[in-house]
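Notebook, p. 212. Picked up where the previous page left off. The plan for this session was modest: take the two constructs that came back from the sequencing core last week, fold each one, and keep the raw output in the notebook itself so nobody has to go hunting through shared drives later. Recording the first one now, exactly as returned: residue sequence, then the structure token string.
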Amino acid sequence: MKILFPTDFSSAAENAFVYALKLADRLEASITVVHVYEMLQLHTWVEDSMNMDQVNDQITIGEFEQFRVKIEMLKRIAAEHRLDHVEVNYSLKESDYVVEAILDEAKASGADIIVIGTRGASGLKEILFGSVASKVIDGARCPVCMVPDTAHYRGIEKIGLTLEYKPGELELIEKSLAIARRLGGHLHCLHVDVYDPDKEKVKLMEYRHAFAHEADISFHVHPDLDVEKGILEFMRFNQIDIVIMGVQHKSKLKEFFSYSIARRIAYHTDIPLIGLHVDH
């Protein structure tokens, strides 16, 4: 199994690297660390007064030297957590398109999951600018684990899965259960709603019947008018270690994920989130 770990060497990325190491150890996976840097872009009149080739050569040399220093830092983190036995490879890339470079690396390396750090954001800044992490999860074909900078690894035993009780969710449940089993955890499936109790009962019975013989999965309904608040309350009360949410690669992906409850939760909780792509 292969894990891709994009990093900008921020404190958020360092924190996420611990999760990547822990996951690699649990999954018997290797890690590819990738850092993407951009060349200097200037207006034409500025370029005429400078030798841009020399400037960019200096940037490349500087990035390479910084990369060497940061590699040693990552090795120290692995040693401090007694995970220096995990295989880690390193990749330095130059690109004007950071997200696309990360996605290309994921495809080229055959990544099974991407682990990436996130910093909290809110309000207009979150909506207008987004982040590298949210754009990666939009475009990736494999699961993406977003690790908040406030997360503290305490093991992965309780895994949450949010459900909307829509058609086609059995595929999402089955994929999530497979991930939970690889991690040796229990899958807690959650639906938050108060508007349609009859629908809830029917779906709850359907799902419980479909997985009646599986001991490592359970289904919960949490009544709350505010879905985001209900999900956060459930995760905190039940000490969920990581939560999975379904993401679709459809024409209205932005409406479905980037501006959705899933994205707000990813930025406003200290619990890591795995975006899992399904085709409904």
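Okay, moving on. Second construct, recorded in the same format:
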Amino acid sequence: MWRSGRSFTGVADVRKFKQDFFPSTLGNIVDYVKKSLLNFMRLRGVKNQNRFFSHQTNQGLKSLPASFSLATWNSFKGLGGASFFVDLTEAIATFDLLCLQEVVLAEDKTWNQQLLQSSFVYGSMYKRSDGCYDGVMTICPVEVRRVKLIPSLATELFPRTKKVAIFSVYPIYDGRELGVLNVHAPLIRTPKSFAAELEYLIDQIKDHTGPLIVAGDFNTLSSVYLLELILKFQQIGVNYLQVARDPRPKMKRLDHFLVRDLHASEVEVEEGVKSSDHP
């Protein structure tokens, strides 16, 4: 359970979704190639556009309860086929707090009807040629108190835009505030620049002294990057949550949870859903 002090608890159930890169039929292969090419065309000529969107619904919760569930998922821009929307709907229904990366959102927020029934904050990396945005989203049934959009220091090689993190703050049952940092880190960078990105993120949230969740896709392609992630956040009392018997190949251990003043009863990787390239 997540726990702060003697009473604040919450369940952590980390869901990851695995893309099947070896489709069993020719039709699946053709479909995957077509979607990949379409996404490439949408990114041609794209410009950096870090924007913030918010959608708040009255779901009757004034604060997060003493026990809550949490997940992080790189949603692969919705390219995982028809099952993607089934997986998304299930994730929204299952978890109290959901950190998503590579979320495609239309400016009128009609990306998916299920989202309109949920309260969320969203930060975009860029606007595509089809008018949609690509970015990170945090879904929570409690009305957000404060939000901060944090573009990365580094610029990606393709497209030439910045990645983004979004920091949101929510009331919890005992009157304190929970900070949630949802991160999509740049992919191509040196260990030195990765360390600089982490220091920059920490500096952006330094004023928040309460319970904290740091989650997302950190693109930790080797143990060097993972160790840097763990050590940097340890300096502000944010501890890494280890997955027992992690089934992911070492090169694909990109998504992580770190917490402060919280305790997780269970942290796991679910491999059963196949609508993303992150196992």
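Notes on construct two before I forget. The longest helix spans residues 26-43.
Flagging for discussion at group meeting.
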